[in-house]
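User: Predict the complex with adenosine-5'-triphosphate.
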Amino acid sequence: MVRVIAIISGKGGVGKTTTAANLGVSLAYDYHKDVVAIDANTTSSGLGLHLGNYHFKKTLNDVLKNRINIPEAIFNHPSGLKFIPSSTSINSIDADPAGIKRVVSHLEPYVDIILLDCPPTLGNETISGVDSANEIIIVANPDWASLLEARRVIDYANFKKKKIIGLVLNKEENVSEEFRQRVIDSMGIPIIASIPEDNAVIDSVTKRVPVVHLHPHSKAAKAYRKLIEEVTGEQFPRKFGIMSRIFG
Ligand SMILES: Nc1ncnc2c1ncn2[C@@H]1O[C@H](COP(=O)(O)OP(=O)(O)OP(=O)(O)O)[C@@H](O)[C@H]1O
Ligand SMILES: [Mg+2]
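Assistant: Here is the predicted structure with adenosine-5'-triphosphate placed in the model:
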C-alpha cells in the first residue's frame, strides 16, 4: 500500500514545511523512493521556497480549480523528489481543498510515498489532508501553547482512525527527560524525533536546499536522519546527499 503521510500541527510556524522538505528530498535521493510532496497549503504556500523556487506557473490551486490536469502541476526536484506546489498569488485562493483527495488517489498507483505538507490549525485544507492520508506526523515546538494545539489535531486524527507515526519536537533546546515524559503522557503518542534549534536550518531555507543535504553534519541534519530512519524503519544509507558535495 502506498504511504500517504500528512504532516500537521496545531500552531503555525513550528516546522512542518521544513520537515516535509527534508523527508521528501532524503526519501527520494538517499532511499531511492518514488516520492511526491504536495504543498497542501493552498492559501499560504511555502514548500516551493524550501525546494528552490517560489513562483510556479502551474500549481495545485489550478488543479483544484480544474484548469489543468494533475501531471501538469508536478515539478521535478534535482534530488528526484517530485512535488506539487501551491499558488503564491491571490488569484486562486478560493480553490476547494476537498479536491486534494482526488489528487492523492490519482498519484497513488505511480509512487511509494506521498507527503502532504498541511497548513496549521484544523481548517478545510488540513481536514482534507488528514482525510486523504493513511498516516500522520505531528510537529510541535516544546512549549505548551504549541503542544496544546497539537493535542487538538491528534484528537482529530484519532477520531478519523488514522495511524499517527508520532511527534516531531522541533526547535528544541535542552529539554529535560522529565519534560519529554510529560509531553509523551499528555499527547499520547511517541516522540519520534527531537530536532534542535539550529542556524543550519535557517541557512538551508535561505539557500533553498534542505538541511539534510546542505549541511549533513549539522545537529539538525543528524536529527532529521534519525526521523527518516523512524519513518522508514530502515537505517540511513551511509552516503550523504549530492547537494552537500555541491554546496557543502
Ligand atoms: N530546527 C530549526 N532550527 C531553526 N530554525 C528552524 C528550525 N525548524 C524550522 N525553522 C525555521 O522556522 C520557520 C518556520 O518553519 P516552517 O515553515 O517549516 O514551519 P511551518 O510549521 O511549516 O509553518 P506554517 O504553519 O506557516 O506552514 C522557518 O523559517 C524555518 O527556517
Ligand atoms: Mg508550512
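The chain has a mean pLDDT of 94.
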